[in-house]
Amino acid sequence: MSDRPVPRRGISEIRGHMVATAKAASTEGIFIASNESAYGPGNPAREAIITSAGGVERYPEDGTARLATAIGARFSINPAKICCGFGSDDLLARLARAYLAPGDELIHTLHGYPKIPNYAYANDANPVAANDKDFTADVDAILERVTDRTRIIMLANPDNPAGTYLSGAGVRRLHANLDGRVLLVLDSAYAEYVDAADYEDPTKLIESSNNVVMTRTFSKVFGLAGLRVGWVYGPEEIIDTLARIGITFPISVTALAACEAALTDRAHFDMVVRENHRIREMFSRELSKLGITAIPSQTNFVLSQFEDSQRATAAHAALEAEGISTRRLTGGDFSTCVRFTMGTETEMTRCVLALQRWRETCD
Ligand SMILES: Cc1ncc(COP(=O)(O)O)c(C=O)c1O
C-alpha cells in the first residue's frame, strides 16, 4: 500500500523523446530544430486566424465535422473516414489507448520516430524495437518481431529523425503478411514533402483493408504547428472508436478557420514544397562538400552524420554559439548525428557558412 496516489506502471518509463535545445532562438537567431515550416501559413490562413477572433466565445461544436469535410475535398477522400485531433500526436496516442491493453506489444523501428515507444508505455504495453537498415524500416525485421501479443505496428513514413522512407511495395508487403488483428499505423506527418517515385500514398491500402490507418498533420507543410491540428484516415469503425475517446471539441475555432483557409491555398502549398526540395538539395550538397554525410531525405529536414560523436557535439555547440539551434539526438546510432530542419535559403546559407567556419577551426 502506498501513502500517495501512484500512476500506472508504464508511465515512469516514458522518456523525453528529444534532447532539449539549449536555448530558444533569439529574434536574430535561427531555429531549425523542430521540423516546423520556415514559411508559416499563407496569407489567407493568417487572415482567417485574425477574423476568427470574432467567434472565440463559442465552442467549435461542428469543428471536427467541418474540418473533415474540407480535408476530404482537398485530398479526394471520404470525410466519414477522417477523425481530427489536437495534432497528430493526439491521434497516435488515442490509437494506442484504444487498441493496447497492458502487456500488449507495439512494434516500432529502432531508429524510427522516438516518441513511438512512449505511446506503448502510457498504456502499460510493451514497445518492441525492430532493427532497421541504414536508418530505414526493414519489413522482414518487423515481421520477425510479430507475436501473439502484437496489436500495433507504428511507423513514421517518411521517418523522423532520419528522413528515410519505406516504398509503397514495402508497405504493401508488410501489410500482406499481417494478421487482421494487428493495426498498421502509418504516421505520415511528412507525406506532402515526398517526391520519391516508389513512395505510395496509403489511401488505397486503407480503403481496401480493415487494419490500416494513416495520420497526417497541419504542423509541417501547412505551417500551423502552433495551432495543433492533425487528422487520421482509416476504416469507419476505427474512426468511430477514436472519436469516442477524444477530448470535447479538439479543433479550436481559430484552428478550424486557419486549416480551412490553408487547405484551399494551393499556391502557398506548392511554393513550400518546391522551396523545401530546392533548399534540401542545396544544403545536402554543401554538407557533403564539408565531409559531413547527409542522409537522403524525403522530408523538410536532413539528418547529418559526423565522423564521431565529439565532432557532432562540437558542431552543434558551434552553431548554437552563433544563434543557430539544431537538434542533437540520443540513443542507437544517433550519437554522431545532428538534424537540421530546412529553413529559408538565407537561414540555410548562414548555417552552411557557420559550419564552414567550424570546420576550419576543428581539423
Ligand atoms: C514523425 C512525426 N509524427 C508525428 C509528429 C507530431 O506532429 P503533430 O504536430 O501533428 O502532433 C511529429 C512532429 O514532429 C513527427 O515528426
Mind explaining what this structure looks like?
- The protein is an alpha/beta fold and 363 residues long.
- Helix content is 38%, strand content 16%.
- It contains 12 helices and 15 strands.
- The strands form 4 sheets. Strands 2-10-9-8-7-3-4 form a 7-stranded mixed sheet, sandwiched between helices.
- The mean pLDDT is 95.
- The protein binds pyridoxal-5'-phosphate.
- Pyridoxal-5'-phosphate (PLP) binds next to helix 3.
Any key phrases for this structure?
363 residues, alpha/beta, seven-stranded mixed sheet, four-stranded antiparallel sheet, 15 strands, 16% strand, globular, binds pyridoxal-5'-phosphate
Q: How does the SSE layout of this entry go?
A:
Elements: E1 30-31, H1 43-52, H2 63-75, E2 82-85, H3 87-99, E3 105-109, H4 116-121, E4 126-130, E5 132-133, E6 136-137, H5 139-144, E7 150-156, H6 168-176, E8 183-187, H7 203-207, E9 212-217, E10 230-233, H8 236-244, H9 253-264, H10 266-289, E11 293-294, E12 301-305, H11 309-321, E13 324-325, E14 327-328, E15 337-341, H12 345-362
Parallel strand pairs: 1-13, 3-4, 3-7, 7-8, 8-9
Antiparallel strand pairs: 2-10, 5-6, 9-10, 11-12, 12-15, 14-15
The chain binds pyridoxal-5'-phosphate.
